[in-house]
Specification:
One of its GO terms (biological process) is proteolysis. Pfam families: Peptidase_M19. InterPro entries: Metal_Hydrolase, Pept_M19. GO terms for molecular function: metallodipeptidase activity. The protein is of the alpha/beta class. The chain contains twelve helices and ten strands. It has helices spanning about 1-10, 40-45, 65-85, 100-110, 130-135, 175-185, 195-205, 230-240, 250, 265-275, 305-310, 315-340; strands at about 15-20, 50-55, 90, 90-95, 110-120, 140-145, 190, 210-215, 240-245, 280-285. A hairpin with a 2-residue loop joins strand 3 and strand 4 (about 90-95). Helix 1 (about 1-10) crosses helix 11 (about 305-310) and helix 10 crosses helix 11 (about 305-310). The N and C termini lie far apart (about 50 Å).
Length: about 350
């Protein structure tokens, strides 16, 4: 275990999807170790989790001007709260990082890298100009939908309470295609988690930058509409994309057994992707504070358990480094390269 501990501490560990509380809530201080949060900066230090993509989560609401205005305001406020995490306080050094070089520099300096993101394209409503505002606040990816269709695309899980039919656009809407082009131009990764199968496949083909599913699992192992099937995994391989396996119990094991989901189940999904499409196309996420938590990895302080399970399955330093962040950093660099091309 000492060798595993040393290995884990030597790796730039990045969790690609963590939620934050709504600013102003009782659990909103990330510098305080509290049972109300599965991820805060003290827990990240204890678990040697060196970087996290913190998501401004926007619940799906009405697709009308008032709904769009409220969603955009919430996204911008949450991104401001995420940016405020990138400072030093109470003996903890953290740093707002918006590119791979900055994340690697923070790791070298012993600081935690805070990477902003947005969950749900409802945040931009029907105004592509909002994307530039999100990017200016550091957002490195946007999840195209959440549960419920929006103006950009169909969701994997329609919202009956919002009168969603099974499909709204037949995949991406024309605006959704324009949004992907604008995200490519701005250097924002296209997150295909939560998209319907058709939307996801269209996004993978349409985007000039490889797409990423920042928090999804494998449908062949757990038949959940949020998981990716073999055709979708193959599309990621063919377009140099990435799936970040996530610690959401119901994505790893179907109910009623989901409550017993464990780190072993988590790595089973990662193994499947490796065997199907290769080491370069899979990584690690938790969805902590958004529903993620499994036996053995219930909060950021227990992150070493994932490394231990990978070691037990004969993965080496190079592969584990790729899973824990190397693959994700590669996509960030590709997004920056595409943005530089214009």
């Amino acid at each position: 275990m000492t060798d595993i501990h040393a290995l884990h501490r030597s790796i730039l560990t990045l969790d690609s999807h963590i939620d934050i509380p709504w600013p102003g809530s009782a659990a909103d201080d990330p510098f305080t170790d509290t049972a109300k949060r599965r991820v805060d900066l003290p827990k990240m230090l204890r678990g040697s989790l060196r970087a996290g993509c913190f998501a401004a989560y926007i619940p799906q609401g009405p697709r009308d001007p008032a709904g769009y205005e409220a969603a955009s305001a919430r996204a911008l406020a949450m991104l401001d709260a995420i940016a405020a995490m990138g400072s030093s306080r109470d003996g903890i050094a953290s740093r707002l990082c918006t590119d791979s070089d900055a994340i690697e520099a923070a790791f070298a300096d012993g600081a935690i890298a805070i990477v902003p993101a947005v969950e749900n394209g409802h945040a931009i409503g029907e105004d592509l100009g909002v994307l530039a505002q999100l990017r200016a606040r550091g957002a490195r990816y946007m999840t195209m939908t959440h549960n419920g269709h929006n103006a950009l695309a169909d969701s994997a899980i329609p919202r009956r309470d919002l009168a969603d039919a099974e499909t709204l656009h037949g995949g991406l809407s024309p605006l959704g295609r324009e949004a992907i082009a604008e995200m490519n131009r701005l250097g924002m990764l296209v997150d295909v988690s939560h998209l319907s199968r058709q939307s996801m496949l269209q996004a993978a083909m349409h985007s000039r930058t490889p797409v990423v599913a920042t928090h999804s699992c494998v449908r062949a192992l757990c038949d959940h509409p949020r998981n990716l099937d073999d055709t979708q995994l193959d599309a990621l391989r063919d377009t140099e994309g990435l799936i970040q396996i996530t610690a959401m119990p119901s994505f790893l094991r179907r109910k009623p057994d989901a409550a017993s989901a464990s780190v072993k189940d988590f790595v089973d999904h990662l193994d499947y992707v490796v065997q199907r499409i290769g080491v370069a196309h899979v990584g690690i996420s938790s969805d902590f504070d958004g529903g993620g938590a499994i036996a053995g990895w219930s909060n950021a302080a227990e992150s070493e358990a994932v490394t231990a399970e990978l070691v037990s399955r004969s993965y080496g330093h190079t592969e584990i480094s790729a899973f824990w962040g190397g693959n994700f950093l590669r996509l960030l660099r590709q997004a920056d390269a595409v943005a530089e091309q214009g």
